[in-house]
Protein: Beta-hexosaminidase
Organism: Cryptotermes secundus
Amino acid sequence: MTLLLLLMVSFIATGNWAQERVWTWQCQEGRCVKQLLQRNETPQGLEACKLVCDIYSTLWPRPTGKVELGRVLVPINYNAITIIGISGEGRALSENVGQLFSTAADNFRNRLTTMFKKQEQRTSGGKSLQVQVTIHDSSTRTLTMESDESYELYISEADYSQVHCNIVSAQFFGANYGLETLSQLTTFDDAADNLVIMRDVNITDSPAFPFRALVLDTARNYFSVASIKRTIDGMAASKLNTFHWHLTDSHSFPFQSSTYPQLSQYGAYTPQQIYTPQDITSVVEYARARGVRVLPEFDAPAHVGEGWQWAGPNVTVCVNAQPWNKYCVEPPCGQLNPTNDTVYEILGGIYHDIFALFDSDMFHMGGDEVNFECWRSSLDIVNWMTSQGMGQTNDDYLQLWDMFQKKAYMKVVEANGGNEIPIVLWTSHLTAEGAIDKYLDNEIYIIQIWTTGRDAAIANLVNKGFRVIFSNYDALYFDCGFGAWVAEGNNWCSPYIGWHKVYMNNPYTLLTNLGVDVSPGTAARELVLGAEAALWTEQVDESSLDGRFWPRAAAMAERLWSNPDEGWQQAEYRMLAHRERLVQRGIQSEALEPQWCYQNEGSCPSQG
Ligand SMILES: *[C@@H]1O[C@H](CO)[C@@H](O)[C@H](O)[C@H]1NC(C)=O
Ligand SMILES: *[C@@H]1O[C@H](CO)[C@@H](O)[C@H](O)[C@H]1NC(C)=O
Ligand SMILES: *[C@@H]1O[C@H](CO)[C@@H](O)[C@H](O)[C@H]1NC(C)=O
């Protein structure tokens, strides 16, 4: 008793009590097993073990081509890292791509610094790391649907003092991903107190789907530019490439239009809660250097209201009408008046301002949830339709909508310098069977699906030759599963969607189940551009943003980049590791499991 007390006192006195390491991790059959540290045994830290143990290391998303991993770690010195970018001919990169590349190299270094817990750890010894990045096309700096995002990555130990990494890519985007992969092959080994990297690596990698997106609604609640950039950081870490920005809605108008600044003056929640042209340019450039395209959406003719008061009484109809359930799906209601020419004039100005700031190769015109009762409630619209010899049936209103869409699209083309541009629209009455062939051209329109993944309408879209983006709400609406806000109980699309379901949401499987042949080589397969996770923000603002997106958005990212045949069970260790990575980089991701499961790999998912 006295001896024990004495021992305890001496532990406390020397401060060793907390530091004494009793556990080590050993790789056994592809998983890290926690074991008691034996006398004279050199401990292996958990992170170092994970890096060499899983067949795909802790890479997220896992590469799609060759994955040859040496599974040996060597210490490297943070202060002895050189990163150079060269063109295919071995010359310096052009200035345009050179600038992007230098930001990507800085980002790589910054990612490594997040691994250190103390400043001193950066200067601890180890080999030097030489990274040479070859970018064959050194002029392309804007991501499009035709961009080549592939890369190759090789790591070898050059000699006793140096580790060499070669990254080769067609364009900047692949080079940037190569650097992300390289940072994922690096960790701080807390047992050895060293930054370590995997020594022998051959990886070839390219995405399964070209369109891998998130949509953030910045109108139901406002999000600062900093939080948007943090979201883009998470996307870059997970190789997602499109940030779809739902700029405005009936609730608020934060987009500051240079042509009509009155819209945000009247429509922003506060004068501070706006996106100025400078804000938007800074987001677009931030995203560009991370391989992310920013796709703007201006939703119309529904989902408008705040801001438009400025334009006068007959430009919008049913704004904040009550009882709202009669005229829209959530308060406040509001739609543009397609019969009033001022509407197109203002839209033209807004589109012009948007095209001046964004350089996306497609534009999102929304087209979500048009309510015919809203239009019917306006004497101005009813009178106009009567004067045109039109009736008051749903078909007549569909025609009115079609007229709006065509006139608004002409304004888009005008804003785009007279050039046609692919347009994304949400699924709606206009895209339904019977309507879509009559009203929309499949060379222009891309349809974003937000029905369930089992809706036969999806098969119809592909059969009619439309390109599609999957945002089927039963797997990709991340706002589902919370309390309701217009009543008691749960919100409309409950329950909460777990990462497993997100991970398993394979667009090809959904189409196959609907009877569409999407086997390799089919035209139908080419029409599936990819998918997009949606965050509608009625019940989210900046304080809970990260946790709603992450790490579930990363689950979708692996589906879209790697499209694995295996189930989520095979990805679970890496999912937990990637979640830790996001947190380390300052993204407040939700915890998926007790930390115990992270430390005891493979022990938590039910085997039964
Ligand atoms: C990587 O490729 C080189 C050249 O083919 C080969 O010699 C080396 O063994 C490979 N590395 C691994 C870890 O398989
Ligand atoms: C359209 O709305 C504006 C603003 O209220 C109004 O001044 C104009 O007269 C309307 N145009 C028509 C054709 O009703
Ligand atoms: C708005 O529409 C109503 C109904 O057509 C009409 O009586 C009124 O003059 C219009 N107001 C303006 C400003 O155009």
About this structure: The first helix runs from residue 2 to 14.
